[in-house]
Amino acid sequence: MGSLYRSELMTFCELYLPSEAAYNCIAELGEFGLCQFKDLNEEVTSYSRKFHKELSMCDEMERIVENIKSCLNEDHIKFRDVNGNIPVPEQKEFSGMHTKLTLIQNELTQVNGSMDSLKKNYLELNECKHVLSKVTGLLDSNIKAVATKSISEAEHGHAGPVYTSDEVVAEDFTTFKDRDESELSFICGAINSTKIITFEKLIWRMTRGKAYVRSQPIDDDTNTLFPNDTNKSAFIVFFIGKQLKYKIRRVCDAFHCHIIDSPENPNLRRIALGKLETQISDLIVVINKTSEYKNRILFGTSQHISQWEIEVMKVKSVYNILNYLNVDVTHKCLIGELWTPTKEIENVKSYLRIGQKKAECSVQPILSPIHTHDIPPTYNNLNKFTRGFQNIVDAYGIANYREINPAPWTIISFPFIFAIMFGDSGHGIIMLLSALALVLFEKKIDAAKIKDEIFNTFYGGRYVILLMGCFSIYTGLIYNDFYSKSINIFGSSWKNPYNHTIIMSRLLDDTESLTLPIKEAYDRDNGPYPFGVDPIWNLASNKLTFLNAMKMKMSILIGISQMAFGVFLSLVNYFHRKSILDVLFMFIPQLLFLSCIFVYLCIQVILKWLFFSVTPGFVFGQYYPSSNCAPSLLIGLINMFMLKHGEEGFVSGNVPTGKVYDQCYLQQWYPGQGTTETILLLIAVISIPVMLLFKPLIQLYMHKRGMPVSGGHGHDEEFNFGDVMVYQAIHTIEYALGCISHTASYLRLWALSLAHAQLSEVLWTMVLHIALSMSGYAGSVAVYFIFWAFSILSIAILVLMEGLSAFLHALRLHWVEFQSKFYLGTGILFEPFSFVAIQKAKEGLD
């Protein structure tokens, strides 16, 4: 908790490493993970640094590992999971590791090249086989006669259709006999099926119908080796003349057709088909052997690829840090500078000694704290529970070094503020169970290494969501709101004093409204409902009026309380910085300004709740006749600024028989109210120039006297009164206006709570109530289906959408309204050299 309250004390150290032990020492510090190295070679290009060659080899090894992983993924071979910590390879193993990975890559490249060549040969032979088979079937029919007639008709100006059906229709071929079948030539081959129609149209138009094209798709069920590469069609083009042959060949080349030489003799075609079958069979054997060899390589690689990836990552990280270091003139020592938590210095030294022993070096590394003017980084020691809340704070800004961290209070205030707006026990239970599942199965989820960004966002904030669910159940019990319905746990403090006769008579009489009389209906013996809102309010017609008034005032109380707490936290920061000027002329006037207006308003709200009811009596010495005279706090606050004050008391003579004043709710309701409010307003007004002027003027006086200006940390030689005055004016105006706007901003607690309650009630009334009001078998079926619709809409709208809205509003209230009172958030995040952090970032799990 101490580290979470304030960041850890940090020490800036200078590190001297013997050259032969530098690699091992840096590797051990990477395992330790709490040293942030300073780059002492920022002005040196990466190509000019000492270990550029080693880093280039690491980049090449990373590329090789990625290539191997892509090969494994293509063949659907799973990697072997890495168990435990993988040590950093020794420096002498580095070149051997590079050689091993290069050999594996070369071997895979050679095998893949052979497989590509074999695949190409197999597909070509397979196409040849199917094309020859299709061509043989066509030529064995009377296709030549059909082609001869079609070409003859085209030559006589009677061109037929672009392409015909596969059925050969028996026709009279006696009309055009000027061409003989022996004059026909043909070209056959394979083409992509998606291009076949365009191909046929182009051939027909180019030759003006003097070529005849037939095609059939290649349905190859026997191709089990490469089934995704068989979307081809076999074609044959008949024509007459060498000139057409040249043109048709050019079209085939343009469409990337695979032209196949087919013998015209049927016997030769059958012999060619037999040879193709033999070649394909032999090629399949070779392909299977090559594939088995490739799989053996990949399977053996898959057992170590994850380990190699981690080892390469660690080696590269070590050399990257070594490039941050300077080399002394003797080239026997490397000099570095680093930040580390003060309490961890001895642990750092012990890890350096471990690195020295591993390197078998006789010279010990030297770690010595040194003074620096650099701003120390901010480091908070976090665990899996506090990390989610710290991320909420860090998203606004990193805390300044040793500044108060808002996270300890955010752990409670954030889910509580969220729950005030969410405020439904039923929806809170859904949220609680969802977060509880993520918490209970976190080991399995961590092992799965899910990389989905949206899921990881929810998973990273599982403990935040868990507390949000718990507090939502709590506030839902206070509001007595469970899926828009109230639960009568302790028994209502109200009862119905009417019988059936009175109710009916009142309903028939329009002149008198039906209300519960206080004396008869309220159970004064047992007192109010023990916890939360009385369930009777769920049935009242003025339910919204009552709940809105309660939630509005509650929002103001909570908001001003949180802002006042933030102002008190600023006092702790001032004491830590030993800045007495800030205590006297920032904290005190800020507290007085806030208290004289807004804390005074809160006191009025509480007093009104406690003492003003529907029962007449004396309150603060003034006779109070009825609830109509309950003081109006809003108008009273406006009158306070306008210096308008009414008479004291609610009735003339301050006696029960006195006349009730007109607008009695604007009268002074306690003795000396006008004087008190005038004094409070005067103090608030005076606080503004005190905040604005006193601190800059005193700093100017101190600067002229040569005294330290900034909290005793030394004389500021660059003190500029104009800049200080502008800075102070901005902060004074921001605080004075912010107190007003931020108080109004907290009304969103009431507004979102109202919106959530109304949406929940609408969903119940318009969806589930319809099913529950149905009877019979139809009602039971309707309840089943409508309940699912109600559940889906509740989760999608009221839990997810409304939950996200309340979450964002809670963020705003913490970042602006609360943290602006004490938190600067302009610090530098501590980013240590850590193998764990680097690996998580690489895997996308950070």
Which key features would you list for this structure?
four-stranded antiparallel β-sheet; Alpha-Beta Plaits; five-stranded antiparallel β-sheet; alpha+beta; 58% helix
Shape: flat
Residue ranges: pLDDT <50 for 5 or more in a row?
162-177, 711-716
Based on DSSP secondary structure assignment, what is the total number of beta strands?
A: 11
- The overall pLDDT average reads 88
Structural class: alpha+beta
Gyration radius, in Å: 43 Å
Percentage of residues in DSSP E strands = 5-15%
Q: Please, how many helices?
A: 26
Helix content: 55-70%
Written overview of the protein:
Among the domains are: 98 residues, Alpha-Beta Plaits (2-Layer Sandwich); 131 residues; 122 residues, Alpha-Beta Plaits, CATH 3.30.70; 130 residues, no CATH class. The chain is 58% helix and 7% strand. The longest helix is centred in the first third of the chain and has 46 residues. It is built from 26 helices and eleven strands. It comes from Strongyloides venezuelensis. InterPro entries: V-ATPase_116kDa_su (IPR002490), V-type_ATPase_116kDa_su_euka (IPR026028). It is found in: Membrane.
Short description:
The chain is of the alpha+beta class and about 850 residues long.
What's the topology here?
Elements: H1 2-5, E1 10-18, H2 22-32, E2 36-38, H3 52-74, H4 94-139, H5 143-155, E3 185-192, H6 196-207, E4 212-217, E5 232-239, H7 242-254, E6 258-260, H8 266-302, H9 305-322, E7 326-327, E8 333-341, H10 345-359, E9 366-369, H11 386-394, H12 407-422, H13 425-440, H14 442-448, H15 453-460, H16 462-479, H17 500-508, H18 518-521, H19 543-576, H20 580-611, E10 617-619, E11 622-624, H21 633-642, H22 673-704, H23 721-745, H24 748-772, H25 776-818, H26 835-843
GO biological process, one term: vacuolar acidification
Organism: Strongyloides venezuelensis
Transmembrane segments: 416-441, 462-479, 554-576, 583-607, 679-698, 785-811
